[in-house]
Structures are given as C-alpha cells and as structure tokens.
Amino acid sequence: MDLDRIAAFEKVVREGSFSRAAVALGIGQPAVSSRIQALEEDVGGILFTRGRRVSLTPMGEGFLPYARRVLEVLREGVDAARMAQSGERGRVKLGALGSLAGGLVGPALARFLRTHPEIDCTLRSADHEFLVELLLDGIVELALVTWPCGGSVQAELTPLFLFHEPVILVAHPRHELALRRSVTADDVARLARPLLQLRWWQKHHPLIARLAQRSRTALEVPMETGRYLVLQGVGAGFFTRTYIAGDLAASGLSQIPVRGFPQLTRMSALVRRKRSVPLTPAAAVLIQELRREAERLAQGPSRKSTGGAPP
To answer: Which among 186, 191, 202, 240 has the fewest CB atoms less than 10 Å away?
Structure first.
C-alpha cells in the first residue's frame, strides 16, 4: 500500500476537501483524487462520500485511526534515524575489564548518559579473553582490554587509545605492613599473610609470581575477592590503582611503597575490530568521554609510576 495514498487520505480528512488537501500537499487536485481512488481499490471499498462537503464513509472511519498510526510510526522512524545520525539516539555496545568498569567507565558513562539520555547503551564486564571473544563475535563493538593482546588476535583489533595505570601494593591501614615505616620485598613475602595473587593482566607479572613463590601464604583470588579481603584486614596484594582508588581516597586501604621493588604499570586499550561497520556518532561521543576519563586518571598522583606490563 502506497504511503502517498495514505498521506493523501489523512490530509483530505484533516482539510475537509480534496482541493484544500491538494494545496497542503503541494500537488494538483487530480493527483489527490487519483491517489484516493487507488487507495479505495487497495482497501476494497469507498472511503469518502463526495458532494459539497467530503465526509467519511463507515469504512473510511474504520480505516482512519490505522492510517494515522502508520503515518505516526513513519514520522517517529524518520526522527529516530535523524537523531541516530546526529548522535542523539542509537545503540552503543561496550565491554570492559571488571577492574576498569567502575573507576574508568563509570564516570565516563555517567557524563555520556546525562547528555545523551536517548542512547541505548549496553555494558558487559568480563575478563580479557572473554571480552576479545565478544568483540570478535560482534556482541560488543568496543572493548577495554589489556594491551598488547599478543598472538594473531592483536592483528584483528585497532586500539583507539591506550591507558597506563600503576599497580600498587595495598593493605588495610591496621595491617602489619601498613604500620611499618619501611617495607621491603622480603617483608611482603613474610608478612602479607596471605600475599594475594590477583590476575589484573593476562597472566601474573613475573616479579609478583617470584614474590609469591617466596611467600608461604600466597593465595590466588579474583580481584573482587581480593578487595574484600584487604578491606577486612586479611592479606595484602598488588592492585591496579583505578580499581581501588575509591578505597584509598576513603582511607579504607593504605598504599604501601616497597623499597627496592620496581614500580609496575598495566597498559590497557579501548579497541574495536579492524573490519567493522563505521562508528555511529553516539559511539564516537562515548569514546571521547572514555578518553577524557583515562586522561584525568593518568594525571592523578599515581602518574609517577613507571615500569611496564609483563612481556
């Protein structure tokens, strides 16, 4: 069924005559009459009674609400398409490491949604390997993963920006390590009880792995569990700073400098597939917010940290 015919029908009803409908549509009256006749053939009956004043037949009255619904849905579709083109509406599918989903993605996403409330945004939090699978399968279009990826996977991805963050030893303020004026690696191995091994990279950093071998109480746990333990005063561990920045600011945890121990840094990246559809305007704005938050975090007191991720 031709939409021009439906539009002509609705306009005749609104204007009350074929001639005024023709003026409103910017076409000739014969064209309006032709469209109405064709529409009546489509629906299988007469829609208007013709005379001095045009009026709807019972069939026309029954058809009118549906015709108007069709036109309204069409207008909504055009508006949605234009808003998507301008970045005001659309969908963004993002994945992020659990250790970055709160401290980095959270503030960026909050700013983004305040200015783009019509955007349908999906966030998936997972470990590096699962995020790469989601990205390659097209379930997410952007992902914050550890970088470099290594292997053939990296050739499939394009980094949009890199984020360097320090990895620091933390414990509860009343933990024995936090109470000492000076701490060495030997102290950490001996006094952490337990030394928490946290998988904040694709594999354990070799320096921390060797430290764990020297400790008789090393315990491998997820970062979520490790954070709970140290907040309860149990053990000490090397965390990415972004993940526990709020706890440090609230004095729930203490950063413990380790004398003579190289300072460590994890590098992550916001990536997308090389062979993928162009980014929507909404996705481009979210990327800007994520980059802005990464730059803000990099300018914090932890920026002096040096070193590198494990090879």
So the answer is: 186
Burial of 14 (0-12, 13-18, 19+ CB in 10 A): exposed
Residue ranges of domains in the chain: 3-85, 90-162+269-304, 165-265
Which of 67, 61, 16 has the alpha carbon at shortest distance from 39? Answer: 67
CATH, domain range 90-162+269-304: 3.40.190.10
Q: Are strands 90-97 and 119-126 parallel, antiparallel or unpaired?
A: parallel
What's at 150, amino acid-wise? Answer: G
Architecture of the domain delimited by 165-265: 3-Layer(aba) Sandwich (3.40)
* Residue in 147, 82, 81, 91 with CA at minimum distance from that of residue 286: 91
Are 170 and 248 in contact, with CB atoms under 8 Å apart? yes
Q: How far is CA 185 from CA 150, 152, 177, 189, 258, in A?
A: 30, 36, 11, 6, 6
Q: Using CA atoms in the order 96, 97, 103, 108, what is the torsion angle rounded to 10 degrees?
A: -10
In Å, what is the CA distance from 2 to each residue of 8, 17, 45, 79?
A: 10, 21, 16, 20
CB of 167 within 8 A of CB of 264? yes
- Per-residue pLDDT of 110-126, as tens digits, reads 999 998 888 888 999 99
* Domains 3-85 and 165-265 belong to one CATH topology: no
* 8 A C-beta contact, residue 244 and residue 229: no
How confident is the model over 128-154, as pLDDT tens digits?
999 999 999 989 999 999 999 877 888
Global pTM reads 0.70
Q: Are 17 and 33 in contact (CB under 8 A)?
A: no
CATH class of 3-85: mainly alpha
